[in-house]
Amino acid sequence: MSELRSALEALAAEDVGNLGPRQQLERITELLEARNRLDAQLARSVRAAELQQAPEDDGVTSMRSWLRGHGRLSPGAAGQLVRNGRALEHLPALASAFADGAVTAEQVAVIAPVATEDRRRAARAQGVDLAEVDAILTAVAAERPLQQLARVVHHYLACLDPDGPEPDPTEERSLTLATFADGTVVLRGQLDAVGGEKLQAALEAITQADRPRGDRRTRAQQLADALVQLADNALAAGDLPLLRTVKPHVIVRIDLADLVDPATGPGAAETGFGAGISAARARWLACDGNISRVVFGPEGTPLDLGRTHRVVPPHLRRATELRDRGCVFAGCAAPTHWCDVHHLQHWIDGGDTSLENSALLCERHHTKVHHGFRVQRDPGGRWRTFRPDHSEIVIGTPLLV
C-alpha cells in the first residue's frame, strides 16, 4: 500500500497541462485501466471483510452500512460494491479480467445478477454450465459497449426462467422527489421497459417539436424542459384527478408588498409544496394565473378572502393565440398550448390586461423575458426580440443583392 501511495503522489505531481492531446488520451487510458484494477481489489477486500464479519469490529452490523458510514458512499454505491464482491466469487473469469483492468466495476455490476444464489440454482437445475456463461459474458464485457452487454445479460436471465410469471410492471417502478432549501427538486427513480418507453416517447415528441435555431441546451436540459412542458400540458388540459377537492394547479403564496416591489426578492414567495422562490419568479407565474386576495388579522387569522381574479380571461387568451399562433420569441416554434400569456407591461406595474399588452411565450422563453430579454411588437405587427444588452436577435442573414 505504501508503494501505491507513492505512485499516486507521483501521478499527482505530474504537470498534465503540458501534455499534448495524444499524450492526454494515452494517460487517461492508462488511468482508467488502473482504476479498474483498484476497483477489483476493493471488491475483493469488501467480500473478504464481509465473510469475516469485519464491520462488527467497528460496531456496525453489515458491510454495506460500514461503507456508507466509513467510506461515505451512497446507499446505492455501497450496496452495489457488496453485490459485486459476492458475484466475483462465482465468476472467476470475470474476476480475473477485472483484476487485469480489462473490465469496469460498472460492467461487473451489470453481470452480477447472473451469480445470485437463485440464478445459480436455476442454472444447475437446467444443466447450464456457469463457467461457460462466465467466459462468454467476460468476453462481451471486454469487447462490447455496456448497453450491448446489458442486453446479453438480460437475454440470458430471460432464458433461464422462460416460464416464470410476467412481473407486475408497477413493482419495477419507483420515483422519489427530493426538494432542497432553494426549491430545486431532484428526481431519482426507475421505470420498467414499457413505462420507460411511454415516457421517452412523450418527452421525445416535445423535444423534437421545440428545436429553435441556435439552441445551445444540452440533451439533458432539453429533456428536463420537455418533462416540465409535459406537466404544463397535463395541468392546462384540466383532465387530471382532483387534488383535495380542487383541480391540481401551481400554488404560490406571496405578500402584496413583495409582489408589487420590482426587486428580485429572493425567498419572498412559497409554493404549495413548500419550496421558497423569489418574488420575481412569483410575478412571472402570475402572468397567466389566478390571483386570490387574502387579508390576515394580527393573529394570523384570515379576515377577508377576496374573489379570485383571473389575470388573463379565456376570451383574451383565445384572441392572443389567434394573433400570435405560438411563442413569439425569435427562433421559437412552440405551439400555442405550450405557451403562457405574458403581459408586455406587467399588470402589477399598471399594464392593461388587453390584447395589445399580451404576448404568447413558451415556458422557457417566458423565463428569459423575466430575466432581461424583451419582446416587442412593432407597428407593422412583427414581433421583435431583444437581448438584455438591448441588441436585437435576428433570425437568418438577409440576402445581399
TrEMBL record:
HNH nuclease domain boundaries: 315-367
Residue spans crossing the bilayer: none
Residues spanning the signal sequence: none
Entries under Pfam families matching the protein: DUF222 (PF02720)
InterPro entries, alphabetized: DUF222, HNH_nuc
Superkingdom in the source lineage: Bacteria
Protein's UniProt name: DUF222 domain-containing protein
Organism of this sequence: Blastococcus deserti
Source lineage: Bacteria, Bacillati, Actinomycetota, Actinomycetes, Geodermatophilales
